[in-house]
Amino acid sequence: xxxxxxxxxxxxxxxxxxxxxxxxxxxxxSGGVDSAVAAAIVQRAIGDRLTCVYVDHGMMRKGETxxxxxxFEEVFSALDVVxxxxxxxxALAGIHDPEEKRKIIGREFIRTFEAAEVRxxxxxxxxxxxxxxxxxxLYPDVVESGGGAGTSTIKSHHNVGGLPDDxxxxxxxxxxxxxxxxxxxxxxQLGLPSTMVWRQPFPGPxxxxxxxxxxxxxxxxxxxxxxxxxxEELTRAGLDREIWQMPVVxxxxxxxxxxxxDGRTYGxxxxxxxxxxxxxxxxxxxxxxxxxxxxxxxxxxNEVADxxxxxxxxxxxxxxxxxxx
Length: 325
Ligand code: XMP
Prior knowledge:
alpha/beta; Rossmann fold; binds xanthosine-5'-monophosphate; four-stranded mixed sheet; five-stranded parallel sheet; GMP Synthetase, Chain A, domain 3; 2 domains
């Protein structure tokens, strides 16, 4: 559509002016549609003066980093994949509070980008030249992080309210006034692959905010298995577009008694959180078909040791948010 063409052309022009003829930028790719579209716009504006950085913080879903590497290498000429699992998990050790988790994750992301910037550009940040950081921040992220007029913080999105005070980057955020459906339209306009454009939203802090309690490697591995099964069954049922997203949440500090075979079990519950939405500002709980719920429940409890109960969240937003933290 011609509005999307306008948005792209206008942003490309603005970014050329902002970054200048020899400025260089790093784009924080999350694997999701927002940062991919932001990066594609900036690549159009400044070409190979853009380097994309994808951080594997150890809280990605099963197989996700490999998938991102495959998909994104096609589209972005310079892609730097950073393994930062130990760094993030060490920083999160002993932390239970959701906002504290979000702030720590936001801070560690920036530290990782600073290190990447030194590696790629030799350390412009903090020097005389400007180091630009491209982010896929959307309008709802700004509002819910307390950046909109007359709003209070609901959650510190890792790329807005979670940023450290001593940030050494200047931000480039070409999607800051857009909603998700508009971003998808722009992505199609730019010719990005439809797997990228239609990928369900996944939060930057990843599974870290879907473990209720302390984040540990063992808990992440458990949740990764349950989540992979839930996603596989949703896809098999052909519901990927109808369902906006379906977080799987691990109640890591809760245990309940169960029975399997002849034995007693004492395991953790997971919560399925399927929602429908237009823009994530509001959402309705999704009426998943019973047979889909049944397959997910049976498979998770059979295939994932230590998870012995599957529950479903039937709260809309408001009053619930989509993610549990
Ligand atoms: P909530 O939980 O606030 O989520 O209803 C609204 C939408 O935003 C996603 N989300 C995030 N995305 N960084 C992101 O990139 C974050 O820190 C973050 N927190 C929530 C969430 O998955 C949903 O689509």
